[in-house]
């Protein structure tokens, strides 16, 4: 199984909204952080985006931005423009001069992720992914967003399923974008997938999570000595190989438990534990509660 596909499947993005954002003249707006991923693509003109007080970054026509956690940010017509507080809205927004043809146009949107798995996205990505039109053809992303906008504007049968699938496609397109600079990435899966040797190991672990992997076997897959592999994996992924495997198994376990309907013995076998007892011990050690308690708390939180 491809690790990116695994991650997106667990995130289950849904409940999207999108809107046109336009401006004319000199303007600036600042937004507080909010707990939802945001995305935007510039259709006309240019603006400047500043994340949590950082230096503004120009956004040109065709540029695409993904904010995995939507931290506090400012959007400006030019550096130094005075900003007014912005309020998140589901309707179209006009900045600056309210009269005349806008000299700036953007499509912006936000969506929700499966709450129990949402921290995955934050661990995968930097605070902002900026895909520049000058670095490659962003027309694929533009077409995906066009489809998202079209689904948002119409109440067709299967709308929610279509939106979820389109968001999944958009996220995968971002994750595999070739011009994302490795140096801009935090330690994690995305950085590991940009290393060919580690990518083969990650695919193997995700394809067969129940296997009794050893560091020696994984090092052989990477074509490296055990010590060199362990050091490179830890530096790139932010944890040791067996720790990564354990974390991924527990991520799968939390997702399965939050949805319910699977016997503990079967779940333990599927993610590589010899018995339900061994799985329960590992789960309690890592999360501080039993699998049953975790499942009950999730059902209570969902109103079941």
Automatic annotation (TrEMBL):
Residues 199-297 form the HTH araC/xylS-type domain. It comes from the Bacteria. Pfam families: Cupin_6 (PF12852), HTH_18 (PF12833). Keywords: DNA-binding, Plasmid, Transcription, Transcription regulation. PANTHER family: ARAC FAMILY TRANSCRIPTIONAL REGULATOR, HTH-TYPE TRANSCRIPTIONAL ACTIVATOR RHAS-RELATED. This is AraC family transcriptional regulator. It comes from Neorhizobium petrolearium.
């Amino acid at each position: 199984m491809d690790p990116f596909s695994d991650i997106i499947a667990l995130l289950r993005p849904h409940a999207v909204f999108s809107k046109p954002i336009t401006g004319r003249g000199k303007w600036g707006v600042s937004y507080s952080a909010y707990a939802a991923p945001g995305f935007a693509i510039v259709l006309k003109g240019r603006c400047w985006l500043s994340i949590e007080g950082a230096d503004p970054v120009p956004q040109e026509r065709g540029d695409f931005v993904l904010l995995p956690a939507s931290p506090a940010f400012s959007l400006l017509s030019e550096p130094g423009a005075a900003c007014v507080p912005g309020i998140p809205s589901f309707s179209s927004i006009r900045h600056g001069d309210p009269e005349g043809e806008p000299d700036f146009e953007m499509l912006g949107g936000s969506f929700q992720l499966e709450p129990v798995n949402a921290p995955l996205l934050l661990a995968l990505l930097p605070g902002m992914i900026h895909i520049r039109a000058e670095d490659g053809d962003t027309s694929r992303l533009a077409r995906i967003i066009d489809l998202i906008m079209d689904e948002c504007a119409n109440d067709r049968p299967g709308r929610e399923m279509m939106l979820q699938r389109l968001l999944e496609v958009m996220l995968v397109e971002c994750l595999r974008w070739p011009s994302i600079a490795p140096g801009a990435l935090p330690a994690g899966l995305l950085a590991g997938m940009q290393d060919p040797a580690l990518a083969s190991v990650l695919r193997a672990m995700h394809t067969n999570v129940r296997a009794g992997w050893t560091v020696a076997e994984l090092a052989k897959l990477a074509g490296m000595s055990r010590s060199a592999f362990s050091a490179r994996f830890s530096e790139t992924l932010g944890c040791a190989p067996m720790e990564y495997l354990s974390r991924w198994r527990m991520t799968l376990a939390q997702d399965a438990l939050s949805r319910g309907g699977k016997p503990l013995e079967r779940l333990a076998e599927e993610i590589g534990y010899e018995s339900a007892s061994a799985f329960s011990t590992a789960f309690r050690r890592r999360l501080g509660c039993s699998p049953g308690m975790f499942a009950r708390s999730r059902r209570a939180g969902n109103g079941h």
